[in-house]
Amino acid sequence: MKHRFWFVFLAVCLLLSVGALAADRDSETGITYTIENGEATIVKCDFTGKTLEIPASLGGCPVREIGSRAFFDMKALEDVTIPNTVQRIGDHAFSESFFLKSITLPSSVTELGMGVFASCDWLQQADLSALRITRLPDGTFRDCGRLVTVQLPDTLTALGDRCFYETRDLMRLSLPKGLTTFGRECFAVNCGLESFAFPAGTTEIPEGCFYQCSRLKSVTLPETVTTIGKDAFRSCNNLTAMNLPRSLRTVEESGLAGVGWQGTLRLPEGLTTLGKNALSFLDVEELILPESLRQIGEGAFRSCRDLKRITLPSGLTEIPDYAFADCGALEEITLPASIRKIGENVFSGTSVKDVYYLGTEAQWKQVSVASPNAGLLDGSTLVNFGPKTDPIYGMRDMPAPDEWSYPGIAFCLETGLMNGMDRHVFAPNANTTRAQMVTILWRMAGAPRYDFPINVVVDLTQDWYKPAVEWAFRAKITTGTGEYIGENGMHLGRYFSPDENVTRQELVAFLYRFTDMVARKPVTGDTTDLSRFPDAESVSGWANAPMRWAVANGILHGNEIGGTVFLDPLSHATRAQIATLMRNYVLYLSAN
Q: What's the pLDDT tens digit per position in 187-240?
């Protein structure tokens, strides 16, 4: 009976030991490893040298995995070679190996853990181009302060949170075309990158993406971005070249606070929401808000110390607390009749003397004005009912004489090239349709009419623009926007898309053709280099020569966005921009 007990006990112990991992150590490399199912996993290393070549096999089995923290805090390791047998690298496998200088991962690696190279402070180069992974895990290169160059795999579609957090020397980073998702604080805090172009297809700039990156100077956003997240570019005080795409709908809390823009900042039409402190601490002098804007958060424009005047769009119903607090130079603001509530300290620390309210006095009395708002409550700020009217041209929305758009608008009103939308409204920030644009050129050509319509344009529905569009086709100012093909496959006419807003490159193309076909003047300068504009590559092929010509001859000076000049070819041309271009164009024709 006693022998039988020991037999059963030994049998149970043997069964429990099946599949257990017995660690072994390679004396030459100091690598401790385990073997399971014929595969070796590195679990620890006490190697004390500078250069290590990890064996392709240990204990007679291929090395498939480098386990979590296996090479953590290696005090002397500078160079390591990873064999092409390794498929998995665990969390923090090489993190805090302070003196590691370069790393190349073989194509065999299919899985990376979090923070694999975090806090490798002397790591300068990393080549991951051979990998076939789709996501770079959280914190992969976090706190790699001397990291200069990273090559990413072409298959990558996403970067995890804090992948390049505090990589202060990062200068070169290859971005795959399919990369469209970026994690929170991906490049935050002193990242060394000076310019960054988000790939096409990116829809969201995440929270803290480039937070506090003072070296960042230029950012290009594709026409797919809809959201700029909380703190995304906060305190990027040297970021002066950054476009805001027409697709943008929301800027979340402090998303653009402290960006280095100067001069004029025009927010894109389509933007609906500005979060708390979204555009605070900017040095812009002029801020043009889109009519699409419906909501602004507390302190949205706080401490924009050089802002002089602003007009709020007609859809807003509330001005939240501290919206313009500490905007020291702000003297004048125009409020829409839709405003129902004004929060606390909206104008504290400003120089506001005049408020132009576009409603009636009776409507103003219904507006809830919170306390404290000393100027509005004690009468020291003058509330004017109705818009400010220009004394010369009678327009209530005429820009001030010292603003960039005033000379062009004044010229077009005086010459009759453009009229107001009514007797007192010019609408300088409104878009212009293609029909309106060719009508301006038609007037410039003397408003010719023809006895017989050409009947080639199939989408003209309004009589007021038909003569102008027909003239534009006859004069070869335009060939339309596409063919109309009948059910039998026959060509039946052309589309013009009269009600679509004209883009800046379309406008310039019209002028370019007008010069050649109507004014009969030679077009010169259409080989001018456009590379000084950050967005030169976004010009469509058919518009390249017209855009070069317009720049060369001083017709188009570009669109200033926060102190940096862009061509902005795909944006819709506003009436103010068109008036300015028309003035420049007439001066050009006169001089040639």
A: 999 999 999 999 999 999 999 999 999 999 999 999 999 999 999 999 999 999
Residue 139 scores a pLDDT above 50: yes
Number of residues in the chain: 592
DSSP string for residues in 180-242: -EE-TTTTTTT---SEEEPPTT--EE-TTTTTT-TT--EEE--TT--EE-TTTTTT-TT--EE
Per residue in 523-549, is it b (16+ CB within 10 Å) or e — as a string?
Answer: beebebebeebbbbebbeeebbbbbbb
Q: What is the CA radius of gyration of the chain?
A: 32
| 216 closest CA partner among 266, 167, 180 | 167
How does residue 9 score in pLDDT terms, banded at 50, 70 and 90? Answer: very low
Q: Which residues contact 244 (CB under 8 A, 6 or more apart)?
A: 221, 266, 267, 268, 271, 561
Question: CA dist 580 to 353, 404, 428, 501, Å?
Answer: 30, 8, 11, 17
Asked whether 137 and 164 are in contact (CB, 8 A), the reply is no
Cβ-based neighbours of 142, under 8 Å, separated by 6 or more: 115, 118, 119, 162, 163, 164, 165, 166
Mean pLDDT, residues 412-427 taken together: 85
Run of H or E residues at 589: helix 575-591
Residue ranges, comma separated, of all CATH 3.80.10.10 domains in the chain are: 22-190
Q: Which CATH superfamily is domain 22-190 in?
A: Ribonuclease Inhibitor (3.80.10.10)
Residue 339: partners with Cβ closer than 8 Å, 6 or more residues away = 312, 316, 317, 318, 319, 357, 359, 367
The predicted pLDDT at position 404 comes to 86
Say whether pLDDT at 83 is over 50.
yes
**What is the Cα–Cα distance from 120 to 143, expressed in whole angstroms?**
7
- Would you say 573 and 502 are in contact if contact means Cβ atoms under 8 Å apart? yes
Q: How far is CA 440 from CA 416, 512, 571, 579, in A?
A: 9, 15, 19, 10
One-letter identity of residue 585: Y
Closest CA to 467 of 492, 446, 450, 444: 450
Instruction: Return d(Cα 570, Cα 296) in angstroms, integer.
Output: 27
Q: 346: closest CA among 358, 335, 338?
A: 335
- Output the pTM of the full model: 0.78
pLDDT band per the 50, 70, 90 thresholds, residue 378: low
Q: Token digits for 590?
A: 């006169």
d(CA 88, CA 67): 8
Q: Could you tell me the two tokens for 548?
A: 């070069």
pLDDT at 10 (0 to 100)? 41
